[in-house]
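Reviewers of the previous submission asked for a worked example of the structure-prediction workflow described in the proposal, so we include one complete record here. The input consisted solely of the amino acid sequence. No template or homolog information was supplied to the procedure at any stage.
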Amino acid sequence: MIERIETKQRMSRIVKHNGLVYLCGQVGDGETVAEQTADCLSRVDDLLKKAGSDRKHVLQAIIWLSDMSDFAAMNEVWDAWIPEGFAPARACGEARLARDVLKVEVIITAATIRSSLMSNGEGHR
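From that input alone, the workflow returned the following structure tokens.
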């Protein structure tokens, strides 16, 4: 079964299927890439919670920067956000984003907490 959450004509903010969570691209507010990344990851946290997941269950992250010279500043925020030992598969590239003021966009795929417990045998009795 496919579950779509916060669906509009163009997109859903969350899509769940077979224990996986797909988030639409997230951007954040702020003047600097660090501020935008922190706000963006806060939005990711909110969506993951709504989907029954969290940052320890992130499987993949695709990060787009409007300027690769912001890579180190974005990584400082990212490294503080992702729990040690739970780094996902990740790619980062440069792209022209939807609005000129945007410096970063993050796309996340995660496992639900429940599916992760089941695959580890912790959910079976």
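The chain has a mean pLDDT of 94. We consider this example representative of the routine output the project will generate in years two and three.
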